Queue: 2 jobs
Job 1
Amino acid sequence: MEYMMQYMLLPGRVEGGIMLVDMSGLTSSQLSGSFGALTSIISVLANHYANRIFKFYTLNLPMALSMTAQLGLRLLSERQRQKIEIVKDVRDLRQEFALHQLEEDFGGSRPKAEQFFPYPLPAGPFTAGSSEGARPDAIPAVHLALTAECLQGRPWDPALSWEENRRLKFTPAAADILKGHLA
């Protein structure tokens, strides 16, 4: 989450992440600690990253843990329940994500990720169910075009206009990175 907040979210924009938690391969001895671990993850996200998670998908939940989770969901508020989804069939995720954004074992067309930092982010389209694949004309390394101040955010200045407060600041490398991509 810290990496995402530092390098991927723009100040002045409301952005939230989606988490996929794959519970496949858990043994019966791991099951007893899994619910506690999952509860801890949700607690940290709720307390330290409030309003940053849009949806929390739990995949391949073992049957015993699934029954416990269903009972646990009843203890949550309606808003909390809206954010948590226990996925019974990974193909259902195709209704939520572009296929090239989802790994093959989650019902998509993307090979399993082997590298996680920086986040491997295929380009759009991001339309749910899209099978077009990543845009070949997407600008690579565009994050390097934004300054650290832009990435970290800044306080809203009431003396500035709405446009000035939301204006992005670019690095000296931005001209080369964006060359030929802007109208």
Job 2
Amino acid sequence: DWPTSQPSLQPSEQPSTNPSLSSQPSSRPSIGPSSHPTPAPTTCEPPVQGPPTSCSGSEVPLTVDLTTDRHGSFDNAYTLINRCTTPNPFPDVVLRVRCLSDSTTYSNTYCVPPARYKFIMYDNGGDGLCCSWGTGSYSVKYGANTVVSGGSFTRYQETTFFGSDSC
């Protein structure tokens, strides 16, 4: 009769064909895969379109104009990093935008403090935004100045720019 109230002194040579359920986790991981797959991660929302009403104090508008390629939903993303925050080996990720749509144009403005920034445009397919899978491109403005624009690159394109001469 299964399950028994006491464990056996000798381990069995074959796994049980009738495993019991327990409220306590085992001390060792399972040998085989589970019969129920892990649920897929939840989807995320694309960035909100449009500029903020106004930036406050010394904040500066940073505008990212982006047209994704035909694989934008799983290829394209961007990150803005503040290089002035401490500790410097692990700078502050100001924003990370992913979950974009295919062949879609976005224009997003963010209010950021004056600092030294790194902007990274990603294409996980390794073919950039343009040419192989569409006519995507991007540009980034800090205030009124365009600090980077492009579309022809491989897996990613990094640009460091200065919104402030010192940190």
